[in-house]
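[job 0412] stage=fold_complex status=start
inputs:
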Amino acid sequence: MKKIIYAVLATLSGLVLVFSYRTSLDAVQPIAATDTAASSGTAATTTPSTSDDESSESSSDDESSEGSTSSSSGSTSSGSTSSGTTETTASGLTDGTFTGGAANTRYGPVQVQITVSGGVIADVQVIDYPNSNREDQQINGRALPVLVSETTQAQSSQIDMVSGATYTSQGYIASLQSAIDQANA
Amino acid sequence: MGSLTLSRSVRVEEIMGMPISIHILNHSGMLDATAERAIEACFAELRDIDRVFSTYRDDSDISRIARGELALTGADPRVVEVEAACRAAAIETAGLFSATWKGSFDPTGYVKGWSVENAARRHLAPLVAHETAVGINAGGDMQLFTAPGADWRWNVGIADPRRAGEIIATLEVQNGAVATSGSAERGDHIIDPRTGEPARGVVSASVVDDSLTRADLWATAAVVAGFDDRSWVARSGTRTGIVIADDGRVTRWLDGTSVDVATGAALL
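[job 0412] stage=fold_complex status=done
writing structure:
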């Protein structure tokens, strides 16, 4: 089974988003193994294609480009901000939109794009998703569960339903689902 | 999100030992007689399922079968159907799921998702002809419907298994099911049928599928498989999901492809 692994690594100057595709048996084109950091061998590094000027420096070393896909190129840094004072916000990510290479799955290519805003991941989009034979279109949107830690939004904002391990009636009384139900009863 | 001024009406009943919430979203903020009847019929069907399948009732078909008082062939046809479905599920999951426990037939783990999906499809799904969206959440497992063309999306929160009352992830669903299994609320209640021991390592597994029956089945299988075995993901045919290990590790997948945050990432 294939895996997409993305990692956010803090370099001295900024952040480089790493998408690595670790494949097993039915390997896809190993997308150039580049620098370390990201796990095992077949790692593809995609450096952010952010707008802000690239201020060269270090991170340039890990521009693997040559990844099977678009994206790539461009190096991060604290862009406009003062150098030294790394704008290490919450998690210290550089704002921008980062696109990983495409991983081939049995349904076709899957490509993930991450938007970082205010130093944290604001959105994870699967931008390239095979139409395949699955009818529902919505999977082309942000179908992947997004960790609250990856988002900027308040965690309980606009939650309609809560999924969790079967709660007992006692558990329900204190649960978020109970709160949602009561707010609308 | 959602359209302007959508109102939500909620009905909650306790059936099968768990609270079951039905939500209806529309512009009127009211439930008409059709909707009220559908909700009542849905709850009634689930109460009837409980009467037949509950292991807490001495007079249920399942209890009578367990005591040897009732043959499967003489049981409610739904029991026969479930028994066959459980055998198929055991094969499909390569033994990660089993309805046979210590020699007796206990389909409790299957019946919940199966019955809620059936009741929801029969009674609630037709309501989207007139309502914007209808959903049912049974103890954390849900089947959701949205009217064709409506721009409504259910924003589903995945409960944080280690912090009560908090959400660890969110996802949007238009039509489909989300089920979560784990030990967060009831302790080690999932037995690994392969060993007879409680499944360990996964505190919470959430699975999204078109069908709640299948989402529930694979969520259970995910807990049994353990965090490191994801060989089942690709063949499960599930849409997406998230598994949380007892040490805090998280993995997700989309249609058979795992999406992992590499270890050492500052995100978690």
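[job 0412] summary: The radius of gyration of chain B is 19 Å.
[job 0412] exit 0
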